[in-house]
Backbone:
């Protein structure tokens, strides 16, 4: 199990468009990827789960991968979240 934290800096937070792309990315990875905040933890492959986190700009997100290429999976998701611009 590999875990890394990232701060969401997108001015509009995590809305439907980037959430859709994040879910697509998570589904393409081998192993299980989880996103968590201080309040809740969800599967990164669940669109409703990701949106239910209510991620706003400045929110710290903990990305955890279990199974498969754990470090590569965490790095890919962290990089995606860090680079959301819309």
Residues:
């Amino acid at each position: 199990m590999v875990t890394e934290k990232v701060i969401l800096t997108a001015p509009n937070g995590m809305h439907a468009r980037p959430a859709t792309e994040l879910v697509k990315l998570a589904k393409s990875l081998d192993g299980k990827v989880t996103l968590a905040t201080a309040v809740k933890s969800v599967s990164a492959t669940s669109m409703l789960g990701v949106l239910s986190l209510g991620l706003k700009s400045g929110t710290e997100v903990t990305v955890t991968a279990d199974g498969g290429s754990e470090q590569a999976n965490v790095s890919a998701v962290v990089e995606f979240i860090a680079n959301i611009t819309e």
User: Anything to note?
Assistant: DSSP finds three helices and four strands in the chain. The mean pLDDT is 97. The longest strand covers residues 60-66.
